[in-house]
Amino acid sequence: MTTAVASTSSKPEDTSSNAHDGPPLCPVILQPGTDAFYVSPSDFLASRPDIHNVLAGAMVFRPTLTSSPDNWVYETLLLRRSASDSYPLKWEVPAGTADPELDPTIVSTAVRELWEETGLRAQCIICPITLGIASNAGVWIDEEGRDARMDSELSVCLVPSAGKTWAVVTFLVMVEPGREWKEVELRPEEHSEYAWVTEEEVRTNRMKSKNGAPFDFVSEAMRLTIIEGFRMRKLVEEMVEAARSAKRAASSPPYLNPRLNSVSTMT
């Protein structure tokens, strides 16, 4: 696990950036399953009067070598909230509230927040991540006894707060190749440090780089989302590898293709 305090260095000037210092206007690939969130926050809220605000986040992964040669594990990026902000010193994924004036879509919210909070640029939005529980099952999220639950229609987590309902959607995101290994640039007024953590650390709630100190997530719903994100990343990897294997098998000569019984092309 890698941790670091906030870097106060300014982001490099990019003439292709939005005026609000959002992510550069580079193509972002959307995968099937994300189209429901390719709508404006205003239109989304208008279609769901039971929801009052939308928050979008991003889970980013990177492979790292373990002590065993050729044994890779994946880590995800977590941010620790500033002591002066709400939910002080608690851990979360890069995320923020949708702004109708800045975000043409809910997907854009996740892309913008990832850039603003870390300096990482999204390249591909793969899929939304759920809590990993049924829509009718709630999960305790804080000492006030509030419950979060999955929506019955969309891959969003519904969180009650101050008498209102927030829709929280977290996306599995790929960033520009190599960018996930560069120094993450934080905004000190929002986050005090970042960490690359493994699934084991999240499941056991122990930070190896801090002598086993427990995580303090913004909510139990956040922890469950992160665990589900690890599962989704692995599932996507397996699906991609299966597709590649099928393509290789289909393009190989019949006498090299184990799926074909005939070897009639061999002489």
Automatic annotation (TrEMBL):
Domain Nudix hydrolase stretches: 51-220
Record-linked PROSITE patterns: NUDIX
Biased composition (Polar residues): 1-19
InterPro entries reported in the protein's UniProt record: NUDIX_hydrolase-like_dom_sf, NUDIX_hydrolase_dom
Pfam families: NUDIX
Residue numbers spanned by region Disordered: 1-25, 247-267
Protein name: Nudix hydrolase domain-containing protein
